[in-house]
Amino acid sequence: GAGVSQSPSNKVTEKGKDVELRCDPISGHTALYWYRQSLGQGLEFLIYFQGNSAPDKSGLPSDRFSAERTGGSVSTLTIQRTQQEDSAVYLCASRQGAGNSPLHFGNGTRLTVT
Amino acid sequence: QKEVEQNSGPLSVPEGAIASLNCTYSDRGSQSFFWYRQYSGKSPELIMFIYSNGDKEDGRFTAQLNKASQYVSLLIRDSQPSDSATYLCAVNRDAGKSTFGDGTTLTVKP
């Protein structure tokens, strides 16, 4: 596709339920990143993928968070047993392989846990 | 100490003035530096990137990098109300993650 695509754009879920957030990066971009942004805050790094492997998952807040990437393309971020503090905008970004190339962001998924 | 620090602002400048946005970083091994603009409710979009010490100009925007001082800045000349946004500084050490500052909110008053 022309840009990074994220779905759903909005998700409202009840506390304790599991959610899956999807990211489809720009075709040919080997690196894929997940960030979280709470209201009025900066971008909090969660995890990044190079191909299908995740060299750095240091930002995942707890073991309730997991992510995978298959076929070097689509990635899914899963949050189990959601809590109210998980409410935020989850941003996915991709870049061409080199670390000195800029990130291209999707429109994000706004997650609200009630 | 945060890895990337920015003044949170808000920074307010009159239309036509120069806006100066600053960023410091802690990792001396950082190699590439980016400025993103984020409008309220939108995703970040790239404004400038810089890899070498000195200045880099693109239209009304100038990025400045001083690796010895671990400092990167963004100057916006002839500021316009449409420049009102949050500006995010991001730093890369290598091919890994980009670390972001918390952003500086800029308001340009007509």
Please provide a written account of the structure:
The complex is a heterodimer of chains A (114) and B (110). Chain A is mostly beta strands and 114 residues long. Chain A is built from no helices and eleven strands. In chain A, strands 2, 4, 5, 6, 9, 10 and 11 form a seven-stranded mixed β-sheet that branches. In chain A, strands 1-3-8-7 form a four-stranded antiparallel β-sheet, with no helix packed on it. In chain A, 36% of the residues are buried. With 110 residues, chain B is an all-beta fold. Chain B is built from no helices and eleven strands. In chain B, the strands form two sheets. In chain B, strands 2, 4, 5, 9, 10 and 11 form a six-stranded mixed β-sheet that branches. A five-stranded antiparallel β-sheet of chain B has the order 1-3-8-7-6, with no helix packed on it. The radius of gyration of chain B is 13 Å and the shape is globular. The N and C termini of chain B lie far apart (36 Å). The model of chain B has no long low-confidence stretch (mean pLDDT 94). The interface between A and B is medium-sized, with 24 and 25 residues.
Helix and strand content put the structural class of chain A at mainly beta
Largest sheet properties of chain A: 7 strands, mixed
Number of helices of chain B: 0
Low-confidence stretches of chain B: none
Task: Determine the strand fraction of chain B and express it as a percent band.
Answer: over 45%
Distance separating the two termini of chain A: 33 Å
Q: State Rg of chain B.
A: 13 Å
Order of helices and strands of chain A: EEEEEEEEEEE
Tell me, what's the shape of chain B?
Answer: globular
Distance between the termini of chain B: 36 Å
| Record field, number of beta strands of chain B | 11
Percent helix of chain A: under 10%
Radius of gyration of chain A: 13 Å
Count interface residues per chain for the largest interface.
A-B, 24 and 25 residues
Q: Which residues of chain A sit in consecutive blocks of at least 5 with pLDDT less than 50?
A: none
Helix content of chain B: under 10%
* Average residue pLDDT of chain B: 94
Q: Classify the secondary structure makeup of chain B into a structural class.
A: mainly beta
- Work out the oligomeric state of the chains in this entry: heterodimer
The count of DSSP E runs of length 2 or more, i.e. the number of strands of chain A, is 11
Please state the average pLDDT score of chain A. Answer: 93
